[in-house]
Amino acid sequence: MYKNLLLVGVLSSFLITGVNAAPRDDIMAQFATLAKASDASFIAFDAERGKNLFSTNFGKGKPETPACTSCHSSSPTNIGETRAGKAIDPLAISKTPDRYSDPKKVEKWFRRNCKSVLGRECTPVEKGDFITYMISQ
Ligand code: HEC
Q: For 78-87, which contacts have Cβ atoms below 8 Å and span 24 or more sequence positions?
């Protein structure tokens, strides 16, 4: 009896804390929380909006990088290239499965790259949309 109660306790704490969830799920859950906090009408992330973010020519940051595609190539499944000519692994999960699993890495590159392209940081909705698109690719 006691043993069963213990088991139920352990199982439900797994469910509640999400200890079992993959790091990428945690990152997405965090973006969803921030998205809801900043926009009451937010419902869900959208791969189509993420695709637009990836491929739109914004030209609002550095002149040499008007779009995400300036470095990440025209397709998320292709290898990209830095301004210095160094290869960048594809952003699509199907090609680079460990992407978007380290919160520090995700934040660092969103901050840097959104500033280079949009001239500002990306919003939580934009970040969630972008990763949703990359998961679908
Ligand atoms: C100046 C070149 C450049 C541009 C422009 C650029 N990126 Fe990147 N991006 C990089 C490099 C370099 C990395 C780090 C190397 C890697 O992850 O393979 C990276 C990594 C990332 C990552 C981290 C992925 C992970 O594995 O966690 C995200 C997210 C990202 N970029 C999003 C964007 C978005 C969104 C845009 C457009 C708004 C953009 N990038 C535009 C060069 C660029």
A: none
Going residue by residue through the chain (137 aa), what tens digit of pLDDT does each one get? 555 555 555 555 455 544 445 899 999 999 999 999 998 999 999 999 999 999 999 999 999 999 999 999 999 999 999 999 999 999 999 999 999 999 999 999 999 999 999 999 999 999 999 999 999 99
83 pocket-lining for ligand 1 (C-beta < 6 Å): yes
Q: Is the CB of 82 under 6 A from ligand 1?
A: yes
- CB contact set of 109 (below 8 Å; sequence gap of 6+): none
Whether 71 is in the pocket of ligand 1, judged by its Cβ within 6 Å, is yes
